[in-house]
Write a structure and sequence with these properties.
It is built from seven helices and no strands. By secondary structure, it is mainly α.
Length: about 190
């Protein structure tokens, strides 16, 4: 049989067990919350460290770019001063050229002076109307003595080959020649 003291102790023991369960649950919750807070602090610290590193890298890049910008400005000023000296002396600065380009200039400086060349108009045409020729190519062609559509339309295969060395492979010289012939016919009403 059960003693009466133990029967009276059962509700007390249940109350103690329930209080222990609640206390354990509360402590476990605090422990999990504490772990979450620790993880959050660690994450925040890492994010702050990454932000600081990024800020330092940006500051270094900005300092480097400022130094390079100042060098470029100094170089620009030096070149302007050098150009001013050339302009004041009345002579243009020498432009570096490759051997092929120098040889090409010498070959095409003078055009043949036959009856066909005597009939050619001596005015200059707008070479930029030829697809692929912009201001830079037009200037280079004029320097080489090709100032009219007729000059370009009369290019031979050898001329195109030699010019191709100086202008590069991207230039479609045969297309330029055909288009120049069309423009010459349209402007002057005659074959080049």
């Amino acid at each position: 049989m059960i003693e009466p003291l133990t029967l009276a102790a059962i509700p007390f023991l249940m109350l103690v067990a329930g209080a222990g369960f609640l206390l354990g649950w509360w402590i476990r919750g605090r422990h999990i919350t504490g772990r979450e807070l620790t993880l959050k602090r660690n994450f925040d610290n890492r994010v702050t460290a990454v932000e600081d590193d990024a800020r330092h890298v940006l500051e270094r890049v900005k300092a480097d770019s400022d130094v390079r910008w100042k060098r470029l400005e100094a170089e620009r000023d030096r070149l302007h001063a050098r150009l001013s000296r050339f302009e004041a002396s009345g002579r243009a600065p020498a432009r570096p050229q490759s051997a092929a380009r120098r040889a090409g200039k010498e070959r095409f400086r003078s055009r043949p002076s036959g009856s066909a060349a005597a009939q050619a108009p001596r005015e200059t045409d707008d070479l930029k109307r030829i697809k692929g020729i912009g201001p830079a190519f037009e200037k280079r062609l004029r320097e080489l003595g090709h100032k009219t559509y007729r000059d370009i339309a009369l290019w031979s295969a050898r001329d195109i080959e030699e010019l191709g060395e100086g202008f590069g492979a991207r230039v479609r010289l045969t297309e330029w020649s055909a288009r120049a012939a069309e423009l010459h016919r349209g402007k002057y009403g005659a074959e080049p």
